[in-house]
Amino acid sequence: MSSDSGDxxxxxxxxxxxxxxxxxxxxxxxxxxxxxxxEAFKRISIADDFQRLGEIPCARNSLMSxxxxxxxxxxxxxxxxxxxxxxxxxxxTFMLVSLGTWTVCQRNIEAERWKLxxxxxxxxxxxxxxxxTTTDPSGGS
Length: 141
Hints:
The chain is mainly α. It is 65% helix and 7% strand. Strand 1 and strand 2 form a beta hairpin.
């Protein structure tokens, strides 16, 4: 189902076209900080990361919110305090809003996953209770 590509990654070999195979990385470490860091930097591919940006949950919405608020605050600060101060405010606002909206969105996704997991765990119990009440209409005696 998956094949090892030799560089510490496992590539899923499903029915997807060969160009869209996404690597699934193992979480194993060697215990050596520098060797693990070197391996982590080998896995970074800026071009691939930007191409897959739309697939990352919450990335598009958080970046768009950050860009819009950064531009708004930057323009207002440029008019009142000068270009350098305004650009600093724009970048700071972009970072703060982007990280904030991404964190809130990720928390909402995690809460939804937790609720879904609870529903899936409770479903068999509900089915068994309904089955018991339909087979024993006298109330248990």
